[in-house]
Amino acid sequence: MFLRKPFEKFLSLPLRAKFILSFLIVISFGGIISLVFGTRLEHRTIFNLAQAKVRHDLASAWMVYNEKLNDIRDIVRLNSARESIQRAIKINDKETLVKYLGRVAKDFDLDILTLTDAQGRVIIRARQPDISGDDQSQDPLVSRALKGDTVTGTQIIPREELIKEGEDLAERAYLRIIPTPKAEPRAEDHEEKGMMLKAAAPLADDEEGKIIGVLYGGILLNQNYEIVDRVREIVYKGEKYKGAEIGTATIFQNDLRISTNVKNVNGERAIGTLVSKEVHQAVLEEGKQWIAPAFVVNDWYITAYEPIKSIDDEIIGILYVGMLEKPYIDLRNNVMLNFTGMAVLCVILLLVILFFITSSIIHPLQNMVLATNKIAQGDLNHKVEINFRDEIGQLSQSFNQMTENLKMANENLIQWGKTLEKRVEERTKELRDTQDQLIQSEKMASLGKMAAGVAHEINNPLTSILINTHLMLEKIGKNPAFQESLALIADETQRCTNIVKGLLEYSRQNPPQKAYSNVNQIINRTLALLENQASFQNIRIVKNLDGHLPQIKLDKDKVKQVFWNLMINASEAMPNGGSLTIISQLSTDEKFIEIVFIDTGVGIPKEAMNKLFDPFYTTKTSGTGLGLAVSYGIINQHQGKIEVKSEVGQGSVFVVSLPINAQ
Amino acid sequence: MNKRKILVVDDEITVCKSICRAISSEEYEVDTALSGEEALKKDEQGKFDLVITDLMMPGISGLDLLSSLKEKRPEVMVIMVTGYPTIKTAVQSVRSGAFDYIPKPFTPAELRSLVSRAFKKIEVEEKAEKEPTPPKMPSGLYYMIGHTWLRKEPSGLASIGIVSDFLKPVGIITALKLPEKNESVTQGEECAKITDAENFNHRIWSPATGMVVEVNERLKEDFSLLRKDPYGQGWLFRIEPTNLEEDLKGLVVSK
Fold first, then answer.
1. A557 and B18: CB-CB below 8 Å?
2. Among A41, A116, A264, A489, fewest CB within 10 Å belongs to which?
3. Residue A56 — φ and ψ, nearest 5°?
4. What superfamily would CATH give domain A47-329?
């Protein structure tokens, strides 16, 4: 629910922002997760590596430590077996012993070298020949050596013992404790005991094998840096990191640094400081090895601590090695930095790619939007650029198609608008023509009715005239005076009969009897009948008939009558010969069959044009004047039309149009 | 032998009289009637052998008169006088039992030929009552009764000929006029003419409308074919009919 508002905001962002934001969210999410896990993994790996290394270094440090111990043992044992020493003891030649022991101690850098008798009483000390006779048989090493063993060990030496061996030793051992925040505080503010590597060997009489004394020697570790520096040299080969020694080693006397190469802020060896509470707890009290990063004096180290035990297995000190943590931290930071840098670089790269991808999507869309706006403003010529064949490309194509159609429709509309006026004119003319035709047919129909009535009424008197004339001819026809007149009456009555017949023909109201027929065939049949007529002897007939005309429904006889009439009229218009061209063709709109009769006759005067199809209108001396009227009626019954064009002296053109799909 | 009795019926007295004059002779006794009603009344008083009646009359029309007369006396001969527009009705009247019809206007000779043929037919029929009956009309043909026949050919054409009944009263044929090829013939109008020994011209009405496509040339040399084989070799001509279905409605089919 609380996400709704930001989500809605997100939805109304521009497309590009939406894309980039979405990608950023995904990338950041992935990046953070991989960064967190990567860092942890890397940290652990480096840490483990460092720990393993420091553990190994600790072992090396022990080796150095034990080596030193063994050195002391070897010196003590070697010298204890010397005949000169044994002989000097036997004869109590103190001078020789002092000289000898002093030389050995000096040669081998031993801080103490002391000889006791078989009871453990000191016979002679190398550096304090005057102090002797004290009992050392309680010393754990000496007591073991009196029993015949050569032993070594680390030992805490009290101040009074140190003083016995030499004032300078007591001085070296004395350390003022420097308080540090992490240390377990001590009650006293100084340390006066010393810690010593010590070895003791028995002196055995050669002949009897009886122990005649013990020789023991050792070095004081306090402020003796030989071991720690050697450890550093062997293990870390004196490597430095940004001016600081990488490796450090320290020997603790209990919790106190007595020998170290860890430096304090002043660049001095940081002796006199105490071990931290945790180490104190783990190593001194619990006797465990302790490996961990620790803050040593003033820097972080990866450290390893292990207890140093006395010969009696008491914990008396700590051996420590430590590696400066900084290189590892720096390494880690470096890796982290690289990792993060790479991640950032990736993000930037992705953003650039994303920018181009979104451009490739958004650019066509923007084009579309632009095109839509342009079209909305009426610019139908604008085309969307099509770059690729993807969905947007297809959309663009469809859009262009749509625009094209729209444009065409628009153009049609404009065109239509332009032609509308013309159409109206055309339609008005058609209407006028139709009206004219209607008037004409109405005229024809009423004339027809009248004609029928007249014909019927005239028929009866004609019958009487015809019968009586013939009867008179029969009776008095032999008299030439009457014969001629009566014959004339009979002939003229016959002519009346024909006129009436024509009238009736014209007025005949019974519908045409239509059947599918071939117009060309009707033309040919009519021509065949006419060619023998006298009026056709001087006329050249040209036929141009379309052989592919469809059959249409018509009354063959009536249509033939029309053709007959038109051809007779044409022939009569050319008394001195000429040519009659007959054409059959499809009309341009393919809805009519047109039969065209072109003559080269006298032509029709303009004033006669309007009356041409009226009944009884004739320009000829003979004839009923019904031919064209009847023809007109017949074609009208076929839903067709007859049109005339004529030029006086040039000839006339009659066009009969018959509908292809007539009812 | 009694004189043949003729009744002329027409609503116009002039026409009536003219017809009377045209046919009056010593052989016939001619009477007139100016309406169908009068004609029926007169027929009741004295039976007529032949009635010549106009088709278009006020009151009882020619067709009504025909059916009334035929109902009472089937043997009576009736000639219908028609105006041009009623030609269909004329054909119809032949179907209804009229002997023949004649379109107005006509000459006395034309009417006389018809009358003569009518009476000759009566004679033939009177004789025939004693003699064996004449051959019936062959089946499958269409007839304009007493005049012509029509046969539908498989080619779509129609053959046209004269029925034997027509020829019997005519007697010896001296001339035969047939239509020309490509000429049009119209149903109910003249298509051929036969001239007999007495110089009477007998007009033959076409049973259908169409264009003549073939004429029986053999017939021109040998008129006897008409009598010997009137429904076969005696055919007159063949037409390409314009609207046969419509024309056939006016004809009778023989069973």
1. no
2. A41
3. -65, -40
4. LuxQ periplasmic domain, N-terminal subdomain (3.30.450.220)
